[in-house]
């Protein structure tokens, strides 16, 4: 019910930019440009957790990008799913175009013509989804899929991951604590293994990467079920030092 009212409110109430507060705009042009106007980046957390696939981000988690992501995820500004999904789509394209494993000098999935891509969102805890009134990660994955299809790419969203056990809130935890917190926490939903094996390569998607622990755990679960993880894409990356980010110019 809460999600339904949020949808209606986003359509009929006058808004302000979630990034900078400018009137009469869900997200102004300046803040949209901050969401990937410069292209996607290959990002590497430091330390990099074992099993982390190549991760591409549309933006850094700061300023208007941070404000927009928080407004969508925590405050139910569902009108932001479009521009945030479009930014995520750019990161997916970057991940899928990059040579497998992040190596230069070879073709990625898009160049090789492998289709469709499976976008697999990293799941949030059920209690968090219930408290927010919407599944932010899945909504962004669907927004990215729409943008990618509009550009002629065959993609599907496969929400195949589930939490196998409760995990603590990751906020405030260090890299080592986060790895321990999520280790073995994810699995695939019963009956979805065949989908992962039969369909195209997987790009894991999430709104934010901090230490990479959740993405590494998601990659482990998908790979264990027989899926081929090509890479991961996020709207934004947090705490990534300049030397740990590489602009994808492919």
Automatic annotation (TrEMBL):
InterPro entries: ComF/GntX_DNA_util-trans, PRTase-like, PRTase_dom. It comes from the Bacteria. CDD domains: PRTases_typeI. Belongs to the ComF/GntX family. PANTHER family: DNA UTILIZATION PROTEIN YHGH. It comes from Streptomyces nondiastaticus. This is ComF family protein. Gene3D superfamilies: 3.40.50.2020.
């Amino acid at each position: 019910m809460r999600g339904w009212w949020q949808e209606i409110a986003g359509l009929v109430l006058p808004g302000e930019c979630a990034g900078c507060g400018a009137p009469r705009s869900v997200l102004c042009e300046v803040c949209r440009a901050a969401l990937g106007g410069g292209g996607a980046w290959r990002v590497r957390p430091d330390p990099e957790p074992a099993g982390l696939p190549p991760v591409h981000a549309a933006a850094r988690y700061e300023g208007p990008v941070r404000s927009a992501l928080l407004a969508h995820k925590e405050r139910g500004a569902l009108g932001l799913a479009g521009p945030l999904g479009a930014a995520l789509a750019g990161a997916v394209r970057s991940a899928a175009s990059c040579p497998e494993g992040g190596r230069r000098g070879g073709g990625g999935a898009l160049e090789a013509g492998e289709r469709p891509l499976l976008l697999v969102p990293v799941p949030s805890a059920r209690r968090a989804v219930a408290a927010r009134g919407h599944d932010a990660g899945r909504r962004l994955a669907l927004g990215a899929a729409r943008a990618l299809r509009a550009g002629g790419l065959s993609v599907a969203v496969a929400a195949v991951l589930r939490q196998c056990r409760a995990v603590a809130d990751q906020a405030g935890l260090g890299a080592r604590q986060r790895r321990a917190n999520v280790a073995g926490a994810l699995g695939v939903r019963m009956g979805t293994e065949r989908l992962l094996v039969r369909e195209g390569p997987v790009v894991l998607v999430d709104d934010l990467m901090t230490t990479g622990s959740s993405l590494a755990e998601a990659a482990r679960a998908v790979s264990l079920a027989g899926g081929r993880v090509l890479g991961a894409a996020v709207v934004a990356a947090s705490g990534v030092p300049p030397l740990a980010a590489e602009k994808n110019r492919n």
